[in-house]
Amino acid sequence: MKKWKGLLFGILYGLAARLIFSLELSDNPILPTSGLMSISFLFFSPFVIGLITAYYFDTVKSAFKIVAISMPVFAVIGVIIISVFFKWEGIICALMALPIFAVMSLIGAFIGVNVFRRNRDKTLVSFILAIPFIVAPFEHYLGLNEKIFTEETAIMIDAPGKKIWQNITRVKEITPAENKISMFQILGFPRPVKAELDTIAVGGIRKAIFDRGLFFTETVTEMIPERKLTFTIKADPSSTPPEALDEHVMVGGRYLM
Questions:
Q1: Among 1, 149, 172, 188, which is disulfide-ready with 91 (CB 3.0 to 4.6 Å)?
Q2: How would DSSP label each residue in 59-90?
Q3: How far apart are the first and last CA of the chain?
Q4: pTM for this entry
Q5: Are residues 170 and 134 part of one domain?
Q6: Helix ranges, the chain (H)
């Protein structure tokens, strides 16, 4: 059991850090943070997990050296699996965080092996455990950076313009047989169902409907018959069921406007 201490303590530390950082929206948080979507949590927490596992490297016998080297990654995977299992995080967030967690934990382990070989002082260890929570208040007071991204996509469709126009303005109900499994659905995004449009004119309201109660209200801002249809998309997080989207990828929410 002794040789698995690093793994166990790494997982427990990761879960404790996640709990503390998830309280950023409460009235009386334990400490001011910018939440889970912050540098202090996404980068420094797995870094410390790597340091924790490195602290116990010398207890792992030579036959288990490969396990010891990969133990930081096992620890962060354990944290992510537990978070997804208990539905604290969605699959999409878990998969996006995994590469960052894995790399930072390995960096922490590499540094930790060299540091603890020379100094295993408990004061140093206590400081290391507090790193994310020391950085978090500074990051919080600096505030979050807002960025606007533009994405352009072009798709060539071999069909008459009139037929394409009919299917763009209004989308008939998509049956499960027609809706092939895609990467987005595997990651946990709701399946598209249909799109309704009250009138094909500027000011018209188009409603894009997905399963699990998710929908987007779209207002037509420009329309050229059979040539161009432009609309704005508005999401109402308050009317979106919690099971529809993870809060960190909620369109119109705190992180994704």
A1: 188
A2: GS-GGGHHHHHHHHHHHHHHHHHHHHHTTSS-
A3: 47
A4: 0.68
A5: no
A6: 5-21, 39, 45-55, 65-85, 91-118, 122-129, 131-142, 161-169, 183-186
Give the span between the Cα atoms of 183 and 20, in whole angstroms: 32
- Helix-, strand-, coil-residue percentages of the chain, each rounded to 5: 50, 10, 35
Per-residue model confidence as pLDDT tens digits over 197-236? 998 899 999 988 888 777 888 899 999 988 899 988 877 6
Range of the domain at 55: 2-142
Q: Looking at the structure, tell me whether residues 111 and 226 fall in a common domain.
A: no
- Specify burial of residue 76 (Cβ count, 10 A radius: 0-12, 13-18, 19+): buried
Confidence band, pLDDT 50/70/90 cuts, at residue 131: very high
Quote the CA–CA distance of 109 and 102 in Å, as a whole number: 11
If asked whether residues 211 and 84 sit together in one domain, one would say no
198 and 101: one domain? Answer: no
